[in-house]
Design a protein that fits this description.
There is one protein chain. The protein is of the alpha/beta class. The protein is 50% helix and 15% strand. The strands form two sheets. Strands 1-4-5 form a three-stranded parallel β-sheet, with helices on both faces.
């Protein structure tokens, strides 16, 4: 935790069981300190409920033990790909914001404008039986 508070990291591998500490509680602390941190949880005590809870609390991924070097390489590649895509999305959002003026739907909605032909039409009457 001290290192997280002093330095920025791209990823963290965190065991669910940390002796006296709970990995899920530590996950919350890590993400509070660095919200963009990709935290990969792992454990020898994996079950679906624990994995779902870890993901719900913000874990990037969940890997059961024992894991292979290929699994670690795969999750690192996934983190990298996600970062590239997030950067691209932010860039496109910035481009869009610069190129497209904001639209005020309240004043441009023809049905709400005074004198609008849609507003001045009489209501549609349905035949009654």
């Amino acid at each position: 935790m001290k290192a997280i508070e002093e330095e920025t990291f791209d990823a963290c591998f965190l065991d669910l069981r940390l002796g006296d500490d709970d990995g899920l509680d530590t996950l919350a602390k890590l993400l509070a300190a660095q919200p963009a941190l990709a935290v990969v949880m792992f454990t020898a005590y994996a079950n679906i409920a624990t994995a779902v809870e870890a993901m719900r609390r913000g874990a990037f991924d969940f890997i059961p033990k024992p894991f292979t070097p290929d699994q670690i390489r795969g999750v690192i590649a996934k983190i990298d790909k996600t970062r590239v895509l997030e950067t691209r999305v932010r860039s496109l959002e910035g481009d869009l914001a610069r190129e497209s003026p904001p639209v005020d739907l309240e004043s441009t909605d023809p049905a709400r404008s005074a004198g609008s032909p849609l507003r001045s039409r009489p209501p549609i009457r349905r035949p009654t039986s």
